[in-house]
């Protein structure tokens, strides 16, 4: 691949015609489900149905202390029937709020920390075949303990917090012992960017 070809390797904005759309489920929560009837451009006779999960996206924080330990939580996730090792994270459910601002809030609420340095690692689509949900991944350094000022409920009331060496976390991901996609993406992005001298 030539250098010019590599530079053109990028996702392309595009929107196929939607001829009808209806709600399958919508309430006061931030996530909804709708059904769209879509057709391929230039082929209106080929109409097909696509279910779309409307989700505002999330921010995920890889918080590292001065000893290169990552702050992780263990939290029950009902859909997969497991208590997962995850990073502090939360929905982008405040209209107009920048992801880094949401990241600061989630770091305080979930693990009682604030960070002096914030670096955007990358933003990814969670599952583009069914949702436009994005995950904004950040590296947070310069950690300080603060009051959580948040009353946890449901699964969050049962979560635990710990610090693990980031290299052990990388190995746990590569071995398949830790399988949360946002955690895996953030940790591997951190490792790759660091190895390339970009952090």
List the helices and strands and how they pair.
Elements: H1 3-7, E1 18-25, E2 32-40, E3 43-54, E4 58-63, E5 69-77, E6 82-86, E7 89-91, H2 99-111, E8 113-125, E9 134-145, E10 160-165, H3 166-174, H4 181-195
Parallel strand pairs: 4-9
Antiparallel strand pairs: 1-2, 2-3, 4-7, 5-6, 5-10, 8-9
Helix pairs in contact: 3-4
Roughly how much helix do the residues carry, as a percent range? 10-25%
Which CATH class of the largest domain?
Answer: Alpha Beta
Question: For the record, what is the CATH homologous superfamily label of the largest domain?
Answer: Nucleoside Triphosphate Pyrophosphohydrolase
- How many helices does DSSP assign? 4
Pattern of helices and strands = HEEEEEEEHEEEHH
Q: CATH topology of the largest domain, which one?
A: Nucleoside Triphosphate Pyrophosphohydrolase
Low-confidence stretches: none
- Biggest sheet strand order reads 7-4-9-8
Measured between the Cα atoms of the first and last residue, the distance is 26 Å
Which architecture of the largest domain would the CATH scheme give at its second level? Answer: Alpha-Beta Complex
Radius of gyration in whole Å, from Cα?
A: 19 Å
């Amino acid at each position: 691949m030539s250098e010019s070809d590599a530079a053109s390797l990028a996702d392309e904005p595009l929107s196929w015609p939607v001829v009808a759309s209806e709600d399958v489920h919508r309430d006061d929560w931030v996530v909804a489900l709708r059904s769209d009837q879509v057709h391929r451009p230039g082929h209106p006779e080929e109409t097909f149905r696509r279910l779309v999960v409307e989700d505002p996206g999330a921010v995920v924080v890889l918080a590292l202390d001065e000893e290169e330990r990552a702050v992780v939580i263990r939290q029950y996730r009902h859909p997969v029937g497991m208590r997962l090792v995850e990073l502090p994270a939360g929905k982008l459910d405040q209209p107009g709020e920048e992801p880094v601002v949401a990241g600061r809030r989630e770091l305080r609420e979930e693990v009682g920390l604030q960070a002096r340095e914030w670096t955007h690692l990358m933003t990814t689509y969670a599952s583009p075949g069914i949702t436009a949900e994005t995950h904004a991944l950040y590296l947070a350094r310069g950690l300080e303990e603060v009051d959580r000022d948040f009353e946890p409920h449901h699964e969050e009331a049962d979560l635990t917090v710990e610090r693990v060496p980031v290299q052990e976390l990388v190995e746990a991901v590569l071995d398949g012992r830790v399988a949360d996609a946002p955690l895996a993406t953030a940790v591997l992005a951190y490792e790759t960017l660091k190895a390339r001298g970009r952090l």
